[in-house]
Amino acid sequence: MKAVQLYYPPEWAHCYGCGYLNAQGLRIETHWHPERGESETRFTPKPYHTAIPGFVYGGLLASLVDCHSTATAAAAKAQAEGLSLEAHPLRFVTASLKVDYLKPTPLGPELLLVGRAREVKGKKVVVETELFAEGVLTVRGEAVLVQIGEGFGRSGSAPGGG
Ligand SMILES: CCCCCCCC(=O)SCCNC(=O)CCNC(=O)[C@H](O)C(C)(C)COP(=O)(O)OP(=O)(O)OC[C@H]1O[C@@H](n2cnc3c(N)ncnc32)[C@H](O)[C@@H]1OP(=O)(O)O
Question: Which EC numbers does the record give (predicted)?
């Protein structure tokens, strides 16, 4: 199964968290499971992603939730509209991100993020994400993602589109 991020067009593939063209980035890969309506991302933090010894830095966890959410939004929107990402490479940016750190996240094990779209409406998708370390839920996230169109971020252009 091809990761959602690999459908992003090159001009939108430089993101630090999820861009396949960012050699220094995290380059997370999110897989969509249409039958469950859920997304999954697996990521193993490096030893230098430390908060206090033995535990993962919260900013990294927020980045994982952030970029996992944008991919979940693209996949959920495509499914809701009956579109293929191959033909319609949807791209979302984060309008709002809330992260609840429920427990310290141990540094070492692979982390699993599971996402679901709670709302798909117009160009907006609301995504809930749970992050697990060795089966234990340690982080919960909620993000509002907005679909962007051609010209996003260019000087003088309005945001949005899609
Ligand atoms: C190029 C690819 C990069 C991918 C990076 C992946 C993750 C990231 O780190 S993104 C970087 C950080 N994010 C940004 O820089 C985005 C900056 N913000 C913007 O450009 C704009 O505010 C943008 C595009 C999010 C929304 O603008 P606009 O298109 O005018 O949205 P707008 O029409 O006002 O709102 C659309 C919907 O989103 C909702 N919304 C917008 N902002 C928010 C917010 N902060 N909180 C909650 N809801 C919001 C609106 O209420 C509206 O909902 P509804 O349809 O129910 O009324």
Answer: 3.1.2.2
3-state secondary structure of 107: coil
**For ligand 1, atom 51: residue with the closest CA:** 124
Instruction: Give the position, in ligand 1's atom list, of the atom nearest the Cα of 18.
Output: 6
Q: Which fold has domain 4-147?
A: Thiol Ester Dehydrase; Chain A (3.10.129)
Question: Measured from the CB, is residue 62 less than 6 Å from ligand 1?
Answer: no
Question: Which amino acid type is present at position 84?
Answer: S
Domain boundaries, the chain: 4-147
Q: Which residue has the least CA distance to atom 18 on ligand 1?
A: 95
Q: How many residues does the chain have?
A: 162
**Distance in Å, CA 28 to ligand 1 centroid:** 21
Express each pLDDT in 78-99 by its tens digit. 999 999 999 999 999 999 999 9
Q: Between the CA of residue 76 and those of 34, 38, 65, what are the distances in Å?
A: 8, 8, 16
Rounded to two decimals, the ipTM of the complex is 0.94
